Amino acid sequence: MQPVSAGPKLEIQMLHDRVLVRLSPEEGERRSSGGIVIPATAQVARRLAWGDVLGVGNSVRNVKTGDRVLFNPEDQLEVEIQGEGHLVMRERDIHAVATERTEHGTGLYL
C-alpha cells in the first residue's frame, strides 16, 4: 500500500471583493456592564460577531489582513481550512473594522 501524499501546499488567494475571516472564539458566558452574568445559552437577539481577517481580494478597499471586523455570521458562507472553520464574505457585509489605523474612527476601542 502506497502512503497518501499530501502534495504541494497551495496558498489561498481571495478574489475580487471577498474577505476570509476566522471567527473569534466565543467567550461563553458574558457579563453586562452592570455586572449581571449572561449565560452562553441566552438568546437576546441576532448577535453580530467579531472575527480576524486572514485574507482579502484585490478589490477590497477598507479592510486589511490582520484587522478585526464586525459582521453577521448567519449570513456568511463557511469553509473548512486545515480542520478549522472560516467564513467568506463580501466587503460590503462587514459592519465595522477595528484597526490600529485611524482615519475616520468613532473614538471607541476594543
From TrEMBL:
Entries under Pfam families matching the protein: Cpn10
Which InterPro entries does this chain map to? Chaperonin_GroES (IPR020818), Chaperonin_GroES_sf (IPR037124), GroES-like_sf (IPR011032)
The alphabetical list of record keywords is: Chaperone
Record's SMART domains? Cpn10
**UniProt superkingdom:** Bacteria
**One MF term from GO for this chain?**
ATP binding
**SUPFAM superfamilies given in the database record:** GroES-like (SSF50129)
- Describe, as the record does, how this protein assembles with itself and its partners: Heptamer of 7 subunits arranged in a ring.
Similarity comment text for this entry = Belongs to the GroES chaperonin family.
What is the documented function of this protein?
Together with the chaperonin GroEL, plays an essential role in assisting protein folding. The GroEL-GroES system forms a nano-cage that allows encapsulation of the non-native substrate proteins and provides a physical environment optimized to promote and accelerate protein folding. GroES binds to the apical surface of the GroEL ring, thereby capping the opening of the GroEL channel.
Protein name as annotated = 10 kDa chaperonin
Which species is listed as the source?
Amycolatopsis vancoresmycina DSM 44592
